[in-house]
Design goal:
This protein is an alpha/beta fold. It is built from eleven helices and five strands.
Length: about 270
Amino acid sequence: MNFTKTTEQSSNYEQLEHMSVADLLSNINKEDKTVPFAVEKALPQIETLVTQVVEKMKLGGRLFYIGAGTSGRLGIVDASECPPTFGVPFDLVNGIIAGGDKAIRKAVENAEDNTTQAWIDLQEHNINEKDVVIGIAASGTTPYVISGLEQCNENNIITGCITCNEGSPLSLTAQFPVVVVVGPEFVTGSSRMKAGTAQKLVLNMISTTTMIQLGRVKGNKMVDMQLSNDKLVDRGVRMIMGEIPVDYQKASELLKEFGSVRKAVDNYKK
């Protein structure tokens, strides 16, 4: 397929090795500043995709991210933060990476080129028509991701994608593509940089907006967060104090008794 892979075009900067530390940092920062504007242009696409995710989740569906390398890791990061942040089940948002969990830390040779494994990986989770699968690939050409979405399309499973190249095979495969064109990287082809940042921003939007739409945030607070450490317990206590007229000790007792900010506040008001 003939399309312009802007993520692979030559950097706007030359002779990086001759730049000072200050110049390197300044120029990387200059490039990074362009990313939110690229994401802004894709907001209508993101809205359409999130609407699909919310609708499916309200029917009992789940969200899956699939990717390879940096893209796969970013999906796993976003998925793994949903349970502690929003108190949802661990299998509601899932991150799958080409090569399996060992690929989270170390690259697995040829994993991203496998055209059958993604569907196998998804089937291990009993993927079905209630679910949504989002493929993540900066290049938009990763065989693992594209083939996974193709199989989902054939099985009436809604598909989306996050990519950084317009007209890529992945964006043409996904039913609801999100294309964030960030242009050339500071280090030519290093798509973990601007492209990775763009993907992370979009993932934040997808999961956070979805959880808010599902009622997992009250006001502006994570009232269903898991109280897994002292910092979060203290945060929960202070959230309770902000919602009902009790002191720190009473709020702490309520949180310990009911196990979540939402339940503590609701039961106190009753």
